[in-house]
Design goal:
Blueprint (H helix, E strand, L loop, with lengths): L6 H16 L7 H22 L4 H27 L16
Length: 98
């Protein structure tokens, strides 16, 4: 059994790791996250399409879905870690809302 679908997620993970270490501030804004998602989806989709010509569409769909799930997970974890108990959203130096 061939595992051509695995090439895309592996390439996406490697691409996101490289982008994280090369462009440190890319994950700091929404636009940067969209750029990183686009680059990872493009490279992963291309690698997955080349891995198996017979199942090209399925492999690309799996790769793009994987990239989207990785970024959604990143946003959920970043939002979860930014909240602290007993503090208003934004940290200790933000005045409470009226």
């Amino acid at each position: 059994m061939k595992r051509g679908w695995l090439v895309g997620p592996l390439v996406a993970t490697i691409t996101l790791a490289i982008l994280r270490f090369v462009v440190v501030g890319l994950y700091a804004s929404g636009g940067g996250l969209l750029i990183a998602t686009g680059i990872a989806a493009w490279t992963a989709g291309g690698a997955a399409a080349l891995a198996s010509e017979r199942h090209r569409t399925r492999n690309v769909a799996i790769s793009v879905l994987y990239v989207i799930l990785i970024m959604v997970g990143y946003l959920v974890i970043a939002d979860w870690r930014s909240r602290s108990s007993g503090m208003p959203h934004g940290g200790p130096n933000v005045p409470p809302p009226f």
